[in-house]
Design a protein that fits this description.
The chain has about 190 residues and is of the alpha+beta class. The protein has helices spanning about 10-20, 40-60, 115-125, 180, and strands spanning about 1-5, 25-30, 30-35, 65, 70-75, 80, 85-90, 100, 105-110, 135-140, 145-150, 155-160, 165-170, 175. The chain has four helices and 14 strands. The strands form four sheets. It has a six-stranded mixed beta sheet with strand order 4-7-9-10-11-12, with helices on both faces. Strands 1-3-2 form a three-stranded antiparallel beta sheet, with helices on one face. The radius of gyration is 16 Å and the shape is globular. This is Putative restriction endonuclease domain-containing protein.
Length: about 190
Amino acid sequence: MIANPQPNYLTPQDYLDWEKHQDIKYEYINGEVFAMTGGTIPHNEIAVNLIAALKNHLRGKGCKVLSSDAKVGISDNGSFHYPDGMVTCDERDKYAIEFVRYPCLIIEVISPSTEAIDQGKNFRHYRRIPTLQEYVLISTDQINVEYFRRNAEGIWELHSYTEENELHLTSVNFHCTLEMLYENVELSS
């Protein structure tokens, strides 16, 4: 996921202006930029399966379903990340061009090499988004989905799903089987 950091500190606006002219995507964290690397075919298939199902489910409901080419801004001062998928139903994101600020759902497809980053640093950043209700982590080496849901008291609760379960994302009232999520996917284990 992350390659070499750039040596010079950039302000959030400097980063946004600079990245427009780059051939690849970069995440922005604490004034530094990090090149994004590509994922595996199973990684992409899982993301496409879920994003396609979410898009179909939310059609006509005023929500944006976005893939890994769309970035999320954590605050006015950064950080900026490229999750594998996200949904925003917030009016303030209706005309967003460069990045989304108010997602209700963020999705990361994880491999053993990205699991610690996605569960640690990225989730610490994502939790700062006041509109975020669910953070989904989908494994590429086994059929397994873990997700965090913010409860009524604002506390994040962990839920786990394996082959027998149906995934329920309350932020967008979406249900799917894990079989659908992993349809035609050759796991990387």
